[in-house]
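Inverse folding, one chain.
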């Protein structure tokens, strides 16, 4: 396959990623082509590598996340890009961030188990916000009285935080407590939400006091991801 054909494929893939407005998997990109002209996985991987290199020194980058590949503005340019939006980005409470962190690190986990670790009640607004944003989902029910729902993170959660898998999250052994986890997630989240308008509905703004849960969360150091 000559260089001219590679450049042609690169232009098609670039156009598709811009038009899609969401991540596209490698196989989805290959299916853009008729079967008789469909590039192999190896060629498509080369095209994506070329596109990634072409973004060097520019204001956007090609990022691989859980759902596939997408173009996105580089985080270092967030302060300027954010001025394009009239509405202020939605902010989330520390309570919501800590709840999200516990789901990410302890999944599958029930609301009652989250409350046991945090030492405070998890409001219904927090659970609803996480479900509406499609960062968490119900993956089953614990086989105990009341059969409480078990929550786990989603591909949308991974996409939002530029992760390809849960294995790419910071090891829990490197994080001292829930408050630190909340701060780390908040830093990533606020950088990302500079680029989007707030979703409809009321923002979660609960600022619950956080009890010292270091010993409880440290018990999970040997947890594996599901």
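Residues assigned per position:
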């Amino acid at each position: 396959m000559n260089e001219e054909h590679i450049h042609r494929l690169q232009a098609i893939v670039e156009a598709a990623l811009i038009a899609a407005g969401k991540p596209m998997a490698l196989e989805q990109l290959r299916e853009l082509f008729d079967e008789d002209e469909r590039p192999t996985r190896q060629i498509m991987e080369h095209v994506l590598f070329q596109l990634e290199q072409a973004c060097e020194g520019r204001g956007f980058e090609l990022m691989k996340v859980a759902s596939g590949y997408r173009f996105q503005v580089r985080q270092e340019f967030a302060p300027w890009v954010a001025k394009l939006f009239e509405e202020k980005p939605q902010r989330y409470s520390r309570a919501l961030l800590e709840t999200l962190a516990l789901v990410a690190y302890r999944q599958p986990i029930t609301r009652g188990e989250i409350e046991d670790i945090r030492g405070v009640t998890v409001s219904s607004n927090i659970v609803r916000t996480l479900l509406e944003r499609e960062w968490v989902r119900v993956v089953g029910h614990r086989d105990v009285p009341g059969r409480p729902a078990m929550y786990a993170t989603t591909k949308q959660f991974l996409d939002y935080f530029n992760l390809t898998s849960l294995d790419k999250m910071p090891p829990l052994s490197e994080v001292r407590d829930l408050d630190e986890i909340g701060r780390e997630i908040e830093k990533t989240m606020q950088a990302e939400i500079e680029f989007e308008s707030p979703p409809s509905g009321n923002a979660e703004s609960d600022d619950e006091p956080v009890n010292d849960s270091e010993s409880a969360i440290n018990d999970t150091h040997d947890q594996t991801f599901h």
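The chain has ten helices and five strands. Residues 3-20 form the longest helix (18 residues).
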